[in-house]
Write a structure and sequence with these properties.
PH-domain like; four-stranded antiparallel beta sheet; about 45% strand; 1 helix; single chain; about 150 residues
Length: about 150
């Protein structure tokens, strides 16, 4: 697998546990969907684990003017809601996300592991981890927006 962007552009993302929608610059690679405040990608706001996930048009939200909804669902990480400004753009994102999810799920492993660390570097801490063959990312919880760390790239 080669690490490169399959699709980039602006989407609107619903904040967790909130009704607030924020415009985010999204980048889909062969491992995850990352999103940023702006096109310059200087401030990463979060990332979404794709191994084991699925993507569907939103079953609970009909499209409204200029808003074409879809969800990324993961059994451990939860559901993330997005919308695109056009039907065509939503279709492009769903198609590419489905393709990447299918490929990364073939080679990825994820679940809970214990990691030695902490302030004194001698405390075992439970982390939710994902290994894609190219990198190993670990999170406090599977629902976190950003990894605590990454090994490899």
């Amino acid at each position: 697998m080669f690490l490169y962007s399959y699709l980039i552009g602006f989407l609107y993302k619903r904040a967790k546990n909130s009704a607030v929608w924020s415009k985010r610059y999204c980048s889909l690679t062969d491992q995850k969907l990352t999103y940023y405040l702006e096109r310059d990608r200087l401030v990463m706001k979060g990332e979404i684990v794709l191994a084991g996930a699925s993507v569907v048009e939103s079953p609970t939200r009909a499209h409204t003017r200029n808003q074409w909804f879809f969800n990324i669902n993961h059994p451990q990480c939860g559901t993330r809601e997005f919308y695109a400004r056009t039907r065509k753009r939503r279709s492009q994102w769903i198609e590419k996300l489905t393709e990447v999810i299918r490929e990364v799920t073939k080679v990825a492993a994820y679940g809970k592991l214990k990691k030695l660390g902490g302030a004194n570097h001698n405390v075992w801490q439970e982390r939710w981890c994902i290994c894609t063959g190219r990198s190993f990312d670990y999170f406090d919880l599977p629902t976190d927006n950003q990894s605590k760390g990454t090994i490899g790239k």
